[in-house]
Amino acid sequence: MKILRFQISDYGPLPDRGIFNLDDFNLFFGKNESGKTLTIDGLIKKLVGDVPKQFNNLNRIDYEPEGFIILKEDSRELKLKDNKKVSDFIKITNSEFGRLFIIRDSDLTFRDKKNFYKNVTNTLLGLRLNDIEEVISNIDDLGNLTPTGMFSDKAPYKLKTKIMDAESTIRRIKKLIRELYKQNYDMIEKQITEMIHQQDLVKSEINSYTEAKKRKLYEDSTETYSEFCKNKKICSKNKDFSYKEKSIWIKQKQTIVHTKENLDSLKEELKVLNRKLFAIKREITQKEQDLRRPTKIKMKLDDSINFKLESYRKKFLDNKKSLEKEPLYKHI
Prior knowledge:
alpha+beta; 8 helices; 64% helix; 8% strand
């Protein structure tokens, strides 16, 4: 049996591309999402109708497409159209038809490929691969490693993060070293070394001065102590005061105390008298100012009167002169 041609239309987003004429070998190609898989799915649905269990992924479109399929069996042609299926011409179930005539890429792979090869290897070579993998897994857990041999980032160690941080820190350190060398860091380091040497020399000098100061202090202290001992000997040779001299000294001391007390009392009285004197002086000053005020007024009045008298005198003299110059008959 051979498919000669077919047409699929009205099937989801698949556009109607007309009639496909097939040959012994046919290849469907095109861009992604251009309808290649959907065309094959529609063709299978048109052939078998109810989708077999092994083709559950054909149910992306939940209805059958429109169109037809022309089959060739021996010398006759069979047309599948409307509700006719290939099972109407061949006594075979849909599942059997799918297993015999339709091969998809999923049919060429093992369902549990990893365990399949592992079981075959164990059977043929007698290796305990499961035990070996368990040991490797335990080693990975102990070393915080991933199956690829890299450090894991599981808590609480998080070795991967720590290693990445360390590598980042190393890169920053190298970058800083390069920048420091660009800024003549080696010269700065040399200067620091010289300054440390100078600092050591200064410390040595300070220590020398400190020792010299201690030595001088010791010598001065020794000399002072010797002088003290001499004075002590001299004092020990002197006689003690007599009782009478001591009594006189005590009386004089008491007299000095009383005199100081009297002096303090007199000082207080003097302060009071000074305050009174200051008040009296201030009062006298005020009275002098009050006395000066009438005197100033008198002086102003005297000046005013003298000025007026002088003006009257001048007027009188002027009038007198004018009278003397004029004839007497004018006055008569």
